[in-house]
Amino acid sequence: MPLQGGSPVRITNNGGVYAVESTDRRFLYYSKLVVPGIWKMPLNRGAETRILDQSGSTEWYNWALVENGIYFLNRAAKPKETIEFLNFESGKITPVFSPDKRVDWGIVVSPDGRSLVYGQNDFSQSSLVLLKNFH
Q1: May I ask the CATH class of domain 17-120?
Q2: pTM assigned to the model
Q3: Neighbouring-strand partners of residue 84
Q4: Three-class secondary structure assignment of the chain
Q5: What is the pLDDT of residues 17-54, one digit of tens each?
Q6: Would 57 disulfide with which of 5, 76, 90, 119, CB 3.0-4.6 Å?
Q7: Cα–Cα dist 74/132, whole Å
Q8: 65, 103, 69: which is closest to 83 by C-alpha?
Q9: Alpha-carbon distance 37 to 51, whole Å?
Q10: Residue 76 to residues 28, 70, 81, 90, 113: CA-CA distances in angstroms?
Q11: How many CB atoms lie within 10 A of CB 60?
Q12: String of b and e for 95-117 (b: at least 16 CB within 10 Å)?
């Protein structure tokens, strides 16, 4: 949607969620709900490319774009899930941190790149609710 208003403009042709624009405003990085990985597409209408294919180990919402790469959660890492970094220049993936508790719902990196924030699931709880006379 243009900032000045007007009609929305379609960017991707094959779907996408959780989109983030690169700092140089040349690329759009995004995930897909049903196809694993993180995708990249030039904003001048080029073809999309999957830049990270961690099938079954990275959710669409657990990654953060920075200028030189992507921090992402690898659920399949052993012995426990790990936040890792994909360096764009080298293509190398390096482990950053293995949290003691489950990471949930998002990773954010500070603008200066010195801090990383993630959601942590400290406990899981459920309740059963009985609804009477609902007709």
Answers
A1: mainly beta
A2: 0.82
A3: 72, 95
A4: CCCCCCCCCCCCCCCCEEEEECCCCCEEEEECCCCCCEEEEECCCCCCEEEECCCCCCCCCCEEEECCEEEEEECCCCCCCEEEEEECCCCCEEEEECCCCCEEEEEEECCCCCCEEEEECCCCCCCCCCCCCCC
A5: 889 999 999 999 999 888 888 999 998 888 999 999 87
A6: 76
A7: 43
A8: 103
A9: 7
A10: 26, 17, 6, 22, 25
A11: 17
A12: eeeeeeeebeeebebeeeeeebe
Q: Domain extents for the chain? A: 17-120
CA distance 83 to 105: 13
28 in Cβ contact with 21 (< 8 Å): yes
Task: Report the C-alpha gap between 103 and 48 in whole angstroms.
Answer: 28
Residues 6+ apart with CB under 8 A from 27: 21, 40, 41, 42, 43
93-131 pLDDT, tens digit per residue, is 999 999 888 888 888 998 888 899 888 877 777 677 777
Provide the edge-to-edge strand list for the sheet that holds 27-31: 17-21, 27-31, 38-42, 49-52
